[in-house]
């Protein structure tokens, strides 16, 4: 019985916290239309800081408010929150491939590729060495090297399927050389 009461009290506190945040978000959205610029700016910043929990209310404000200032500011805040979330996803995806990898291609070529935290990359093969930059495209890592080569890395379990194009202009329409990347210590 005591556990049930404690459990219920925790739920009430969580619900009241969510209600308080919803009330705060509603007040801040109203403040987006304040006559004073400084108050509008402060409300914008606080709503951006609240982030995803404010998105539903911001979306409603962006489409249903009569006040043009509120609609426009709500739309900008939505975009800022979405961009921040997208950046975090990209950072996590790049962190997943950060490190040193050995890639064995079906054509017999083996390369060693290093990918840094910021997306900087380098590759070494018996006949080439090049630096490049890795970005996230469509859920895969795409590395563009300075020697006109492009690789697309797609995770499959603990390994990564690597598609390699040379020249890079053939990416992604021409058939690639295929390989498997394995993380190396």
Blueprint (SSEs and pairs):
Elements: H1 2-31, H2 37-50, H3 55-64, H4 68-97, E1 99-105, E2 110-115, E3 120-125, E4 128-137, E5 140-145, E6 149-156, E7 159-165, E8 177-184
Antiparallel strand pairs: 1-2, 1-8, 2-3, 3-4, 4-5, 5-6, 6-7, 7-8
How many extended strands? 8
CATH-derived architecture of the largest domain: Alpha Horseshoe
Give the strand content.
25-35%
- Sheet of most strands: 8 strands, antiparallel, barrel
Return the string of H and E elements: HHHHEEEEEEEE
Shape: elongated
Average of the residue pLDDT scores: 88
What fold name goes in the CATH topology slot of the largest domain?
Leucine-rich Repeat Variant
Overall number of domains: 2
What's the alpha carbon Rg, rounded to whole Å? 25 Å
Coarse structural class = alpha+beta
Determine the N-to-C terminus distance: 54 Å
The poorly predicted ranges are: 1-6
* Helical amount: 40-55%
Spatial strand order of the main sheet: 1-2-3-4-5-6-7-8
- SS summary, helix count: 4
The CATH homology group name of the largest domain: Leucine-rich Repeat Variant
Explain this structure.
- The structure is a single chain.
- With about 180 residues, this protein is of the alpha+beta class.
- It folds into 2 domains: about 1-90, Leucine-rich Repeat Variant, CATH 1.25.10; about 100-185, Lipocalin (Beta Barrel).
- Helices cover about 45% and strands about 30% of the residues.
- The chain is built from 4 helices and 8 strands, in the order H-H-H-H-E-E-E-E-E-E-E-E.
- Strands 1-2-3-4-5-6-7-8 form an 8-stranded antiparallel β-barrel.
- Strand 5 and strand 6 form a beta hairpin.
- Helix 1 (about 1-30) runs antiparallel to helix 2 (about 35-50).
- The longest helix has 30 residues, at about 1-30.
- It is elongated.
């Amino acid at each position: 019985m005591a556990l049930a009461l404690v459990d219920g009290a925790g739920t009430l506190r969580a619900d009241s916290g969510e209600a308080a945040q919803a009330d705060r978000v509603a007040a801040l959205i109203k403040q987006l239309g304040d006559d004073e610029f400084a108050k509008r700016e402060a409300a914008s910043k606080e709503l951006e800081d609240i982030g995803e929990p404010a998105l539903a209310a911001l979306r409603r404000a962006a489409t249903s408010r009569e006040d043009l200032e509120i609609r426009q500011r709500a739309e900008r805040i939505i975009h800022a929150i979405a961009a921040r979330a997208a950046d975090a996803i990209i950072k996590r995806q790049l962190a997943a491939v950060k490190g040193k990898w050995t890639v064995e291609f079906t054509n017999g070529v083996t390369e060693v590729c290093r990918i840094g935290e910021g997306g900087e990359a380098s590759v070494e093969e018996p006949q080439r060495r090049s630096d490049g930059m890795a970005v996230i495209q469509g859920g895969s890592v795409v590395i563009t090297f300075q020697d006109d080569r492009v690789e697309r890395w797609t995770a499959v379990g603990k390994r990564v399927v690597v598609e390699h194009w040379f020249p890079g202009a053939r990416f992604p329409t021409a058939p690639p050389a295929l390989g498997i990347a394995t993380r190396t210590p």
